[in-house]
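Sequence in, structure out. Go.
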Amino acid sequence: MTKVYNALAPEEDEEGAVSPASKEPISKPSLHASNTAVTEDKDSVVLTCSTDNTGVSIHWFFNGQSLKLTERMKLSQDNSTLTIDPVRKEDAGNYQCEVSNRVGSSKSDPIRLDVNYGRSTTGLPVASIIGIAVGVLVGLAL
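Output:
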């Protein structure tokens, strides 16, 4: 005697009806940044991926490659929000999010994050000013 088993596709319910969310074509997500010009080791940035689609997976890209999370990066539970705190110079570049379901996927337009280095009101890097000040103090002490 041969037994026959009916396998249901993951998007089908017990009656074989396909879930409307899984048949929905993917619309282009939008990406928003709390700030796109930030100062290294001082500021944080929050990137939010918004989509009209439900039941999707969200993935993040940095300069066209899959984002590798560092200890300063946190994703929200649903992956829709990426927080970088604090930002560093290596975080500068283009960020994108991609939403996908069983039907397809779509990437957002890129957002460029510019990371500025700590500068004083003189326009010189803070480390240079400290070096100049130390040099002057040492010179005065001699």
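Check: The CA atoms of residues 22 and 102 lie 6 Å apart. The first helix runs from residue 20 to 23.
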